[in-house]
Amino acid sequence: MSLNVIMLGPPAAGKGTQAKTFARDHGIPHISTGDMLREAVAAKTPVGLAAKALMDAGKLVGDDVIIEIVRGRLDRPDARKGFVLDGFPRTVAQAGALDGLMIGRDPLIVVEIIVPAEVLVARACGRRVCRDCGTITTAAQAACPTCGGKLEQRSDDTEAVVRERLRVYEHNTRPLVDYYRSRPTFQPVDGNRAPDAVANGIRHAVETAQATDVAHRR
Ligand code: AMP
Fold first, then answer.
1. Each residue of 116-145: pLDDT tens digit?
2. How many CB atoms lie within 10 A of CB 141?
3. Is 217 a catalytic residue?
């Protein structure tokens, strides 16, 4: 059975860190639409050039563009054994499109990472990302704890843009919790803990979702 997981949650809830760890531990790809867009921006592709201003303002990139990116990525052979989606879906239209892409695959497991709003702004503004290996850490570190590389702040992790991203989350993405809540594979996880404790919570949540799904299908 393939492990098809979505990490839902607001900006700086820990989706990226947790999705990366979970994917590595389970040998499945970590698919972050934010990372894919940042690569497109750095490579100055047409998608990247069109997305940059929206990303820097904390706005969402258009559904059609994002859905095509995800469709192409899920078609790759490595995604057949499962995946962890991070930052997608972010709108009800994207969630509907994803349900279409899932036809013929094992059900989605939806993990909602819950963190209080006041914690998120401080976390996002203090977040640093390694330029070389992508490790996510904090401004308290002088260099990347994984590879020693130089740490950078994402251009959209400034306070004004973080507040706009939180507003966009409440308006566009929070409704996805209601979209998914009634499914037997939906699991909330407390994200306001140390990263290892959150990772344990997610592992447990995914096992519970799988068991509930099996029981539901009997
Ligand atoms: P993230 O790294 O997930 O925080 O994404 C960074 C930015 O990329 C977001 O603020 C959006 O501008 C854009 N983005 C990433 N994923 C999506 C998505 N699923 N839909 C629309 N825009 C997205």
1. 988 999 999 999 999 999 999 999 999 999
2. 12
3. no
